[in-house]
Amino acid sequence: RSAVRKPIQSRPLKEVVRATDSVAVVIPDITRPFPSERVLPWLFSELSHVAPGNFTIVVGTGSHRANTPDELARMVGAGVLAGYRVVNHNAHDPATMERAGATSDGHPVFMNREYVRADRRLVLGFVEPHFFAGFSGGYKAVMPGIVDIESIMHYHRGSLIGHPASTWGVLDGNPTQEHIRAYGSLLPVDFCVNVTLNRKRGITGFFCGAVAAAHEEACRFA
After folding, report:
1. One of 64, 107, 156, 163 is an active-site residue; which one?
2. C-alpha distances out from residue 79 to 82, 85, 190, Å
3. Would the pTM of this model clear 0.90, i.e. be above it?
């Protein structure tokens, strides 16, 4: 609560989201150990001035399969699943996406429609060293989490992830991380909640606020 009330380079979460806003909340899918079942109730408690019907939880599947109802219940908790709208992103279905823009190299980028149309966008994730992105977390919730399959394949191309600077623990000069940030920032992200974890999924730190600043602080801690 302290982390979202005194965030990094951002207004407090309560001030960012108005009662009338539609809100997209992006979470990792079942392949990631992010403790959504703990973080989401805290988030919704902090945003109690916003009706549950105003939220859509978007599961950032990237190119992975959809999570099953049983998996979703384990991920977010039965209470959240019953009280809030939860949708699996489908990178293979153009009907569920809208154009978010294009990158500097001219590549068009499509994102989950619920995310594109929302008044406010919140991204959740956890930070650990990543073998070609440098670190997980930050804008990675958006790219590749909720973009189209062509963009995901473009991001995973050999010349990018095979670059010597696309490696563990490197942010500055990492072309893969630069690619993630370029795609992820095409639409405004209003608030980021990143955590670090220990081996037992215990939360060891909260890094909340502006995406880039919160992510970089989390990476330094990790």
Report:
1. 64
2. 5, 11, 25
3. yes
